[in-house]
Amino acid sequence: MGEERVLVDLSRWEEDLASYVSNDFEKMYELWVQDQFQKLPKHVQQRFFNGVDQWLIYTYTFLQGTQMQQDAYDRLLQIGRTYDETINTVEDLSRLSIEKQTYLANQHVAKNRLYSFVQGGMAGSGGWFLLGVDIPLMVGLNLRTIQLIGTSFGYNMHNPIEMLLALKVFHAGALPKRLRYEAWQELKGNVNEYDSFMGEHEELTNPTWAEQPLKSIFKTLVIVLSRRKMIQGLPIVSVGIGATINYKTAKDVSDFATRFYQYRSIQSSNK
Description:
Elements: H1 2-18, H2 24-38, H3 42-64, H4 67-83, H5 98-125, H6 128-132, H7 134-152, H8 160-173, H9 177-189, H10 211-226, H11 236-269
Protein name: EcsC family protein
Pfam families: EcsC (PF12787)
InterPro entries: EcsC (IPR024787)
């Protein structure tokens, strides 16, 4: 019954993703971004994507090595043992029911949204330093959450294949909603091949990610301009903008990641 309920929720979520229709502004914006990006020399485009890929891999690896992340994994195992005393490793969590796995994942999803909301608010209220580290912190928070979501479903996120997959999930979840369904279908279509198909040179980012830097620049400009609007001496508007945008990003990425690992776990259990 639990698996059936999750599949129904997955189906509804997928239908909502598939039924999204871009408005005229989004279509014009997408064409403009693609046109501007294509004007760059090919080697510059490739260097940009390679740089983003390397940065994401470095951030992921760094997070995996932190004591905070190891403590979080240990807590997951402790909670897992309250359901099954024989659980000793991360992989053993795959024996739990899909609803228990989802419950474990949702604990970290809720924390990530709260942390992202606070961090975005700080970026909106602080000086240039806090604004400058907004993007690295936001990426770090969301990658950490994906690592914990994957672990909740019994996947060893230290595995290089799992790392590449998690980064692809992050990329897909951070895409504009109009592009997310296609990315979902690609991940979903290859779900039974993830043990072998990812090679050393698997590309993580691609031209669909060209909008992300522009969105970040636009957010920064809006926050800077909004800081002038004070309410009782506080930049409430810029705080609200930073908190809301980061919260929405965290929600989109964590929802996508949870749905993906739910689907993958169900497919694995039905093999």
